[in-house]
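ingest -> fold -> write
write: protein_1
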Amino acid sequence: MIVLVINAGSSSLKYQLIDMSDGSVRAKGNCDRIGIDGVLSHNAPGKCSFKKDVEMKNHARAVEVLIEALTNSDYGVIYNVSEISAIGHRIVHGGEYFTTSVLVDDDVMEGLRKCIDIAPLHTIPHITGIEACQQVIKNTPQVLVFDTTFHQTMPKKAYIYALPYEYYTKYHLRRYGAHGTSHKYVSQRALALMGKKSPEGTRIITCHLGNGSSFCAVKDGKSFDTSMGLTPLEGIMMGSRCGSIDPAIIPFLMDKEGLDSKALNELMNKKSGALGVSGVSSDFRDLETAAKAGNERAQLTLDMFVYQAVKFIGAYTAAMGGVDAIVFTAGIGENNASMRKEISENLSFLNISIDDEKNALCGRETEISAPGSGVRVFVIPTNEELVIARETERIVSELKPVG
């Protein structure tokens, strides 16, 4: 089975074509600046890699462009679109409407539209991407795989907010989490690396650290708690997101700065976090360069990030009654050796010992804890697209043939 994985944003559409016989990526790319001018970045391992301007007035045209690239007679990887068995969509938020991956039909689309109020910035582009595929790649089954479904196993005590309960029943205000496909993939890989045939009795903390960051307490192979909440704004400070703050700051700033809810939402999501504190950048690589040059605010930002990471790991260790393994993944987690080491060293109560030589090997799957370490520590590159493809394959394979 060949699965096309789609991740649609407001002005972009990322894609991967995955051969499920061996999990290999035949091609991947991004249709960017949709509705503006259009740029296609395309890579077919072992065949070609290019970036070129292609007019894309909408997402339907973007889907046509990616199909043209995949089937091109010179550098394509399939002969025609009929070779694509199914399409898997990455969906950020499923609310309480979706507790598992689902096959697209009219009822599913109606349920997805109900999630717009909870995550409008993501859900509207997702719907646009699905409809574009329906228009261009007709009669091909489509599956929705939600970032939130892995966290549906959280106990109620972990996801209910201490607001009047009527707001949970009325508006579904609760913790949903995010990065679920990433946390699921790396926690399962950790179990394999630990030689565990069963997840029962295991306690793993997965650290998805990037421009957007979240932590997950994985107990018995299931999400037990996670740092992101109703939206991806809650939790640790991020590239441009403030993370968890005193809620009273919100009305305070609205009064003092004359901000409406839209402006404040923009401030907390796009002008805060590492960017807001440092005044330098939302990219932690820039912050490390600035800190080494003596920029005190850049150093403060790095210190804050490490401190908050240690607090989350410590809290989840307590919540699960211990921890067997800690996993670092995503952009910072996979590639920033100094950040991993500093976080680990600040967890002295866990008697963690890091192997500096192994820790220096960035971007590859490896155990970086030294022999005798009180907790095993891993770096595991995430592969959310493969999780989406596997879920898509599973659901489509279960379809009963007609006739």
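write: protein_2
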Amino acid sequence: MKQRRRRKSWGFRRFLLNFSVSALLIAGIFAGLSACARKDVSGHANRNPAFDLSTFFDGNAVAYGIFEDRFGNLRRQFRVNLSGRRDGNQLILDEDFLYDDGERANRTWTIDRQQDFGTDGILYEGRAADVEAVARGTQAGNTLKWQYDVVLDMSGMSLKVHFDDWIYKQDEDIAINRAYVTKYGVDIGSVTIVFIRGKTALSLWPLQLDQWPNQ
């Protein structure tokens, strides 16, 4: 009888132990997912300096960027000349790219300011030739969240990927863009871009895009 009780007691303890380990694993998984989830832009409503998309990109600007794969390995570098102009609630933004492998590219955005939701942000929609359907963004505080699907030419193959851009204005002339690139919901890499405009960009614009600098 005592032996049976011991076996039952040990079996119950083992069940509790397994249950506790499983619960901890599940909690860890959900904690990891929560940490990876990107927050809504409204959480940045009180951050300064305030970022107005049309004002920031009105005129000439330059940008420097890198693309890293999902393991943090540097894959590409690029630089951009930007030229924007406002027309009412619309921003036309021309982007000329040079990549470190010599590739040239161009994109022209037509971005419309749609609606102001107060502290929940200002809604924007944008279109470009290589962007599928409509890009959508929300700006609040110093932050713009910008999402779109784009077709990239990678080693001669067309690949449609999703961009989840987060642009943070740092001061009057500087903004940093952190973009997460996914395919079927799986992370394939990230892009980091520094935008420089206004007086800070006067000595830089336009960047020479004939060839990648050797020095």
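write: annotation protein_2
The chain is about 20% helix and 55% strand.
Strands lie at 59-69, 74-87, 90-99, 104-116, 122-127, 131-140, 143-154, 157-171, 174-183, 186-197.
pipeline exit 0
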